[in-house]
Each structure stands twice: as C-alpha cells, then as structure tokens.
Design brief:
Elements (H helix, E strand, L loop, with lengths): L14 E5 L5 H10 L20 H12 L3 E6 L4 H19 L2 E6 L21 H6 L9 E5 L2 E2 L2 H11 L7 E8 L10 E8 L5 E15 L5 E6 L5 E5 L4 E9 L8 H16 L12 H10 L4 E6 L5 E2 L6 H13 L12
Parallel strand pairs: 1-2, 1-4, 2-3, 6-12
Antiparallel strand pairs: 4-11, 5-13, 6-11, 7-8, 7-11, 8-9, 8-12, 9-10
Length: 345
Amino acid sequence: MIHNNEGEKLTMKTTLLIMAAGIGSRYQKTKDAKNTGSTSAIKQLEPVGLHDEIIMDYSIHDAIEAGFNKIVFIIRPDIEVDFKERIGDRVEKICDRLGVEVCYCFQTLTDIPQGHTVPEGRTKPWGTGQAVLSAKSLIHEPFAVINADDYYGKTAFRKIHDWLILPHASQAIAMAGFILKNTLSEHGSVTRGVCKLAEGHTHVIDVVETGGIIRTVDVDGKIGAAVQNAEGSDVQVLDPESYVSMNFWGFPAKEGSDPWYMDILDQNFADFFQETVPDNLLKAEYLLPTQIGGLLREGKVTVKVLETGDNWFGVTYQEDKAAVVENIRGLIERGVYAEELYSDL
C-alpha cells in the first residue's frame, strides 16, 4: 500500500476485472477424453484448495489484501448459474463483509460494433479485448485485468495496485512481468504475449501474441521454449528468459474520469471488424496483447513492466490441475495463505 508523507494510507476506488468467460476448449477436450469425473465442466470453476477454493479465490484474496475494493466478473450468460453457485454468491458475502463492491457483466457473441453482423457459423466470442470492453459501463476508476484461471501471486497484485493509485502521464499502462519458462505447461502448447523490452528492462516496446509455445528440456535438463506448428515441428526457438504477458494489465484513470483505455479499445474494435474479421470470419479474435502491441508500435502508449518474484501457475489442460493443487497446498504449508482462505482479511 502506498502512503503519503505523514505515513497515512492512500486509498481510492480500484477495480479488479476478472475474465472468466473463456470456453476452455483444450481443457474440456482432455477432460472428456479421460473421463475424469470432475465436478465441474468449466475449468475456471475447478476446485484446487483445501476447502474446494478455486484459483480465482486466491486472486480475489490477493487483490483485496493489496487494496482493490471492487471486483467485476466477466462471464458468459450460459455459465451464470454455475458461476454464482460455485463462487459468485460466496464471494459476494465475503466482499460485503469487507466493504468490497462486486459486479457482473456478460461477454456475448452478438455484442459487436454497429453496422456489423455475426458471421454464419461463428460460435465463440471475440477474445480478451472484447471481454474487457464488455465491462466499459461498469468501470469508472483505475482497473487491472486478469485471467480467471491463472495464479499470479501476491506481489503482482500489490505492485499493480500501488502503481494504479499514483499519478501517471496519459496513455500509461502497466504489465505484471513473468518469465516465459516459468509459465509453460508440461502437457501441451500455450499462448503467451511475448515481450520485447527496452534497455534497462523497465518498459515494453513490443508485445506479440504467440501461440503454439511448448516447453522443451535439453540433455542437461535446461528448460527452454519453442513454437511448434500444427505438424508438431519446432519452427521458432524462443528465449526462455523472455518476459511475457499473462494478461495481467493495469490501466490508470484520473480522478473523476473514466479509464482512457476503454475508449481506445472501443474505437479499435470497430477497426478490427473492418480489417481483420473479413479474412477470418469464424476464428478472428480481438486480443489484449495484440491491441496493446499495436499501440506500442504506433507510439501511442507506454507499458511499464512490474517484475514479480512469485511463481505463476494455471490450468490450461486437465493434467495441469494436480500440479496446481500441489502448489496451493505448499503455499498454505509455508503460511502464505491461511487454511481458511479470507479469514486473515
């Protein structure tokens, strides 16, 4: 928490926006194939804690502890009942006790710019950029964005929050920086926003959304990363020490003003439908790293890297869950979290 010169805490409204509308197709596919008998078909709602907490619980806990006082869930209409039953209703009660506001918004396939129609055969929403844009009417303060199925660690929330409540130049963005080799799954390929940093490693100068990244291990046991094509051949070797975006972004706003980034995201969504969708009607996605990378190349934004020392982990594939459960258990044993999560807030 930031303090003023008299040592008093500086508080202001700050929102954590949680993207929980992902379909999780790779996870669902492996789950169905192995017939695991899991209690949930939605990966964001899979239990991983001692008392059936889900990954999102730990992000919400860490955000509130860091000073965030508003939570906005982005979900799909078809998972609303399951979502509220599994976490929403419970978190609302906890947040009410703590004075934290909770809101919901929906990401839908049909929420697109005026003058356009949904292509025939399109079934999935339009990506993380559209997800954030769906919350535009609810956010009137500095905000951070995270994925629902990623564990980021306490440091990332604290650093992003403390950065958000400081004054910033216009068009400033922050990114929680994670090292590529520490964000890979042992069970399949992942997509990451691979970053190029300026000298001094304090700011991003480019970010490229890169799919098909696999974890490699050489004969000496050294972990690396490579991009594979559809045939399973390595087509590009990546620096495993590169910084990557895990979709943990911070967007400031001046007091009394809406976040400037929402207007840019709205304007560029219309351009996306004009320029990108016609060439890929069924699969084109409006992605945060892609949009921010474009703004960086045009010199329209700056992106501050906030380094984190915590280990990231997440559930991309069903097989990832066991490692997540083990990691959570280890954090509890080391006293990072209470056995009864939220009891320390």
